[in-house]
Write a sequence for this structure.
């Protein structure tokens, strides 16, 4: 068992981290918002943690909290103008946000060390931290999806105008979803920085946003567990299919395409389960 | 002063290709209401096919351009069959096609990476005759002349097609309403496949021209173009063809001058700050009025 752990611990840590990134897509997707802003907030979390650990020598939770605070404020500030935009324009503006953060990190060399990245970040995150974080976020998402907030999210996703007509404050809930997503991504970023020792701006580009999206779409966002399943599959699959290891994007792309065309509600779909259960039951009754 | 003219001209030549790229992008949006996020990957493949046509088949540059447009156009039709039609017939939300085209973009880019072996490829010397003309105070290279001429010819051809042919009228009818077009006996699926062909061919032409202009063809060359194309159609308004032309030229000028004035470091960020400001002020873009295709 320890052998297995040693061989696959990096992969397992990556899967856990990606599961939280997939979960960060849950609130916005549950609201029907096409947001790829995640990598921007993840970058803020990662750089805040790294800079505070390297320059001030403070422990990881301090850096993570500072990153969290910055992400929270920026998400609130961004939400106001962005949420006025309709679907496509909103999607594009979030792509722009990721690009702005990337360019700032690349060029503000005094702060971020530019393209060279930040090295020798103390490794303070262990696997059980990640497990705990996944459990906490998953539990929070489960509680949210079963609460008034989750119902409001689904109503907005189904039809914004009808939701507004039922006196759901659409702007309020969309802001909440956006901020929640930003906060989760930011903490994941801080964990990432203290896990890998090294970060550079190229980790946090639009390409990463596609992975976020892949987790959420493949797993589905009908249920909170969906993005976790998506993250596990899309992270493990290229590693297991050894020959495809270097063609990660090909695997991700193909899985994403198949999912959106054939399983539009994702792999974890309560309707699909019910359908199968009924078919099984009827077959048993028939025989 | 001469420098100013020269910079303005360089900006226009680059902007003409941006406009060409954005034309195909905006055409699909106007007809289908879909932001085709694979457009940049098709652009990259245009560049690749053009290069291979020159190096492997030994074609001159103009036939290579046509070959690239043809082949990538067919790939575009494939994209419609695999990634767009099933979703359209099921009647999903407008976000699903964005995700499916993104998936196609990932696949195409990954294949391009395999084909190029992650290297930057170059056109052989003499693929494009090198010659400079003087036009008043401005020096025009042969590549710039080709960029401007190709973009102009294709833009005019697209305009004439949409305005003055029967097939073009069908395209505009589908853009107005797919449902009504079907009721009028128009084969909307056929029209959309044609639109994808045209759009992808325009993107491929842009790819060949940019590959020539910078003499570099790489698997990830499309990535920055996706963002530029989006910038252009936001500047001009989604689905607006004149808007794409104006927006493309404008972006080319802004980029060239911002590099000349302040260095190129924050160029992409400035473009996006502009977008956010513009969208807050005019949510439909500079020339935008509403949804739908406008010629």
């Amino acid at each position: 068992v320890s052998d297995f752990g040693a061989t696959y611990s990096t992969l397992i840590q990556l899967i856990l981290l990606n599961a939280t990134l997939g979960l960060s897509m849950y609130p916005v997707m549950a609201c029907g918002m096409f947001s790829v802003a995640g990598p921007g907030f993840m970058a803020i979390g990662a750089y805040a943690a790294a800079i505070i650990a390297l320059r001030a020598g403070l422990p990881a939770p301090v850096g993570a909290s500072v990153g969290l605070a910055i992400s929270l404020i920026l998400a609130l500030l961004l939400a106001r103008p962005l949420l006025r935009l309709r679907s496509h324009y909103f999607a594009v503006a979030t792509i722009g946000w990721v690009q702005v953060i990337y360019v700032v990190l690349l060029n503000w060399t005094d702060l971020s060390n530019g393209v060279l990245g930040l090295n020798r970040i103390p490794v303070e995150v262990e696997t059980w931290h990640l497990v705990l974080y996944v459990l906490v976020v998953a539990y929070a998402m489960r509680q949210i999806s079963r609460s008034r907030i989750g119902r409001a999210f689904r109503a907005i996703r189904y039809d914004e105008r009808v939701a507004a007509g039922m006196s759901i404050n659409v702007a309020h809930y969309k802001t909440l979803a956006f901020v929640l997503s930003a906060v989760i991504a930011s903490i994941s970023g801080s964990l990432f920085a203290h896990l890998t020792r090294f970060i550079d701006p190229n980790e946090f580009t639009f390409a990463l946003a596609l992975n976020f999206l892949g987790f959420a779409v493949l797993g589905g966002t009908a249920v909170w567990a969906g993005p976790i399943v998506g993250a596990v599959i899309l992270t493990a699959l290229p590693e297991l299919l050894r020959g495809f290891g270097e063609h990660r994007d090909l695997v991700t792309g193909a899985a994403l395409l198949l999912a959106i065309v054939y399983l539009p509600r994702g792999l974890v779909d309560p309707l699909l389960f019910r359908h199968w259960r009924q078919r099984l039951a009827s077959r048993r009754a028939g025989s | 002063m001469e420098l100013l003219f020269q910079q303005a001209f360089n900006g226009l030549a680059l902007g003409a290709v941006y406009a060409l790229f954005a034309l195909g992008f905006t055409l699909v949006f106007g007809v289908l209401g879909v932001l085709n996020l694979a457009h940049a990957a098709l652009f990259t493949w245009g560049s690749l096919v053009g290069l291979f046509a020159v190096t492997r088949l030994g074609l001159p540059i103009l036939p290579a351009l046509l070959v690239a447009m043809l082949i990538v156009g067919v790939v575009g039709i494939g994209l419609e069959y695999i990634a767009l039609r099933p979703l359209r017939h099921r009647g999903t939300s407008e976000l699903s096609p964005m995700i499916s085209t993104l998936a196609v973009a990932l696949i195409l880019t990954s294949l391009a990476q395999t084909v190029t072996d992650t290297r930057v490829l170059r056109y052989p010397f003499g693929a494009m005759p090198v010659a400079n003309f003087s036009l008043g105070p401005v020096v025009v290279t042969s590549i710039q002349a080709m960029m401007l001429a190709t973009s102009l010819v294709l833009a005019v051809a697209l305009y004439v097609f949409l305005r003055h042919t029967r097939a073009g009228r069908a395209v505009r009818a589908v853009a107005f309403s797919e449902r009504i077009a079907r009721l009028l006996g128009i084969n909307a699926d056929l029209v959309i496949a044609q639109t994808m062909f045209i759009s992808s061919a325009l993107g491929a032409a842009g790819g060949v021209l940019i590959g020539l202009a910078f003499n570099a063809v790489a698997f990830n060359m499309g990535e920055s173009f996706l963002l530029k194309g989006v910038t252009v159609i936001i500047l001009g308004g989604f689905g607006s063809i004149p808007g794409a032309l104006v927006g493309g030229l404008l972006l080319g000028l802004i980029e060239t001058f911002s590099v000349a004035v302040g260095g190129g470091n924050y160029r992409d960020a400035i473009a996006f700050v502009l977008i956010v400001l513009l969208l807050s002020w005019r949510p439909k873009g500079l020339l935008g009025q509403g949804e739908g295709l406008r010629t």
Remarks:
- Chain B has a mean pLDDT of 86.
- The longest strand of chain B covers residues 132-135.
- Residues 2-32 of chain B form the longest helix (31 residues).
